[in-house]
Design brief:
- The chain has about 450 residues and is of the alpha/beta class.
- The chain has helices at about 10-35, 40-50, 70-75, 100-115, 125-135, 140-145, 155-175, 185-195, 215-225, 245-260, 280, 285-290, 320-340, 345-355, 360-390, 395-400, 410-420, 440-455, and strands at about 85, 150-155, 180, 200-205, 205, 210-215, 230-235, 265-270, 295-300, 310-320, 405, 425, 430-435.
- The strands form four sheets. A seven-stranded mixed beta sheet has the order 2-10-9-8-7-3-4, with helices on both faces. A two-stranded parallel sheet has the order 1-12.
- The chain is globular, with a radius of gyration of 28 Å.
Length: about 450
């Protein structure tokens, strides 16, 4: 009461208090729903009533990754005859993950030497950086010999491209157009978008009707690109098409790049995988260097060393002066420091040990050649079986393509049928990892493909 004494509420008071409290609860619910703005308010309403609402309830789920989501589905499939041809990872004849013998050998030698686990410099292991540049450009490379190559160890190919994208964003400008092949590796677009580029465009690459390179369209689009545009080229074993320019076609591409004064980034994820020859697979970057073109490159050792989980790669820049190389290297370090500070050590030590020892390198090249030949054999076997299963259709593109992938020409619906009826997993684009085939599974896959393309 007014004197401060506690009083027992009457029945009328209790009813009034209930109304006030209910009104307050409803107002609070409305306020919180307005703040969070959920797509479906009912679950959020229940959470609020239970006292477990999050201030982050308004955040939607992110999009699924097109490769890893299908990989997860394949791993969850317990069917005994499933075939996973989605992810770009080498498999042996038994369909199992393969650790290179040379990697096992280097691992054992490293274990015996009891190496430290200290931080690497921001730009990585110096020996690795030097050997990696020489692997791509060649030991006789003038740029290497004259210290005109800026290098920075990175988190495999993805990390290397992201590092270079950040560099271009900073020094060429986020408003600069970025040109990617159509089609391209799905992550290319994400990398440049997250680096802040606002104009991501495509150049024609794949001729879907004839299932080959559309060189004419590609050159037309590059000629029409504004000067200083960033152009991403895949050095070999194009992902996803498996279709590479010939050496003469690369010369024509280089001429257009030079005439239009374009910035080039070579994505070098498959050196040694396309033809089984490290030098042949490095033709394009070496051609560009020989013609005096400045360009950047991103290397990955996930495929040719099988170091998928070690995240070993390098970002590099071939420039015309050693002074420019020093400056770019310093900028690489300035960009890398707030991103990931410094790169992992173990995988870089393995690559350095193998590339730096003539005997170990010879063993690696022999093993890499055998892996490449197995993929070629699987291409030929798949082609042969497809010709048997569906002789009326032209399957020549299966063997004309090279590298890890085949752009089969299958539609999204056909890929879904393969998964639903036969437990065969491809990307919805029709991209197939040929490295996932075996002598046992190739006939089964060919038969299933023939069935779905016939509309059975």
């Amino acid at each position: 009461d007014r004197d401060g004494k506690r009083m027992m509420p009457t029945g009328e008071d209790t009813e009034y208090l209930k109304k006030i409290n209910a009104h307050y609860i409803v107002e609070s619910l409305i306020e919180k729903l307005c703040q969070t703005k959920p797509d479906d308010p009912l679950p959020c309403l229940l959470q609020i009533l239970q006292g477990s609402v999050s201030r982050y309830a308004h955040i939607p789920k992110g999009p699924k990754d097109p490769v890893f989501s299908i990989l997860a589905d394949a791993r969850a499939d317990n069917h005994p005859n499933k075939v996973d041809l989605s992810v770009g990872a080498y498999r042996d004849e038994e369909g199992k993950a393969y650790v290179l013998n040379i990697v096992k050998k280097a691992d054992q030698q490293l274990a015996l030497s009891k190496p430290d686990k200290e931080y690497l410099p921001i730009d990585g292991l110096p020996q690795f950086r030097q050997l990696s540049a020489m692997l791509l450009l060649g030991q006789a490379s003038p740029a290497v010999q004259q210290n005109r190559v800026a290098t920075c160890q990175a988190l495999s190919g993805t990390g290397a491209i992201r590092l270079l994208a950040e560099f271009y964003a900073k020094f060429v400008g986020k408003e600069t157009p970025v040109y990617l092949s159509n089609p391209t590796w799905a992550n290319h677009t994400n990398i440049f978008r997250f680096a802040g580029f606002s104009s991501i465009r495509t150049y024609r690459y794949w001729d879907a009707a004839n299932r080959c390179l559309n060189l004419k369209g590609m050159l037309q689009d590059l000629r029409g690109a504004p000067r200083q545009s960033v152009v991403v080229l895949q050095a070999c074993a194009h992902n996803p098409t498996g279709c590479d320019p010939t050496q003469d076609e690369w010369r024509k591409i280089a001429d257009v790049i030079k005439s239009r004064d374009l910035n080039v980034l070579f994505d070098c994820a498959y050196q040694g995988y396309a033809t089984g020859d490290l030098d042949n697979d490095a033709f394009a970057p070496r051609l560009f260097e020989s013609q005096g073109l400045e360009f950047s490159f991103a290397q990955s050792y996930s495929k040719n060393f099988g170091l998928y989980s070690e995240r070993v790669g390098m970002a590099g820049f071939v420039v015309n002066t050693s002074q420019a190389a020093v400056a770019i290297n310093s900028q690489f370090k300035a960009i890398a420091r707030p991103l990931y500070s410094n790169p992992p050590l173990h995988g870089a030590r393995i690559v350095s040990m193998v590339l730096g020892d003539a005997e170990l390198r010879s063993e690696w090249e022999t093993e890499l050649k055998a892996m490449s030949e197995r993929i070629l054999n699987m291409r030929q076997l798949l082609y042969t079986e497809l010709k048997k299963a569906d002789p009326e259709r032209n399957w020549d593109h299966i063997v004309s393509q090279i590298g890890m992938f085949s752009y089969t020409g299958l539609t999204k619906q056909q890929c879904e049928l393969l998964r639903e009826r036969h437990h065969i997993y491809l990307l919805p684009t029709g991209r197939m990892s040929v490295a996932g085939l075996s002598s046992a599974t190739a006939p089964m896959v060919a038969s299933a493909i023939a069935e779905v393309v016939k509309g059975a």
